[in-house]
Design a protein that fits this description.
The chain is an alpha/beta fold and 158 residues long. It is built from five helices and six strands; from the N terminus they run H-E-H-E-E-E-E-H-H-H-E. The strands form three sheets. A two-stranded parallel ribbon has the order 1-4. It has a two-stranded antiparallel ribbon with strand order 2-3. A two-stranded parallel ribbon has the order 5-6. The radius of gyration is 15 Å and the shape is globular.
Length: 158
């Protein structure tokens, strides 16, 4: 479940995971302001590869408790092989994962300005400039990765 920040993908994914009794994994467990998509990706793919082989996988979340990211120093998350795992968050439906994903959903609710205001309301005014830079990065990423065009479904309402 992919899409821009504050589009509603986390809420939608949480509700869907509850409905399907699925495990929910968020890219927010990995990404930082400085590294939205790249350096952390091997940690996640290692865990998902184990699960694809019907073995348990795990990873450590990024710890933000001190106000800055401490990569792989947060809680450990176990992933067990099961029928449905929902991977949610920015860049979760990237082309590099196409062969592993059975369904790609792109959540695109609201204009960029509306999403910026929702993100700031959720996380605080002190993050406004981070979110503006993040939105610029998202635009470029989605254009190159063709994320929305490759989605099986696009959700654009609340």
């Amino acid at each position: 479940m992919d899409g821009p920040s504050a589009a509603g993908k986390s809420t939608f994914a949480k509700n869907l995971a509850e409905e399907l009794d699925a495990q929910l994994i968020s890219t927010d467990h990995f990404a930082t302001w400085e590294d939205p998509t790249t350096g952390w990706w091997p940690r996640l793919t290692e865990a998902l590869t184990a699960v694809a082989r019907n073995l348990p996988g795990s990873y450590r979340k990024t710890d933000w408790s001190q106000g800055f990211p401490c990569i792989a120093e947060g809680d450990e998350v176990a992933i067990s092989p099961q029928r449905t795992i929902i991977l949610e968050g920015f860049s979760s439906a990237r082309k590099a994962l196409d062969h592993h994903l059975s369904l790609k959903i792109f959540v695109d609710h609201g204009t960029e300005e509306q999403r910026l205001e929702r993100a700031v309301a959720r996380d605080g005014e002190k993050h406004r400039e981070h979110f503006k830079r993040w939105q610029q990065y998202e635009r470029g990423w989605f254009a190159i990765d063709e994320t929305k065009n490759r989605a099986d479904y696009v959700v654009n309402s609340s």
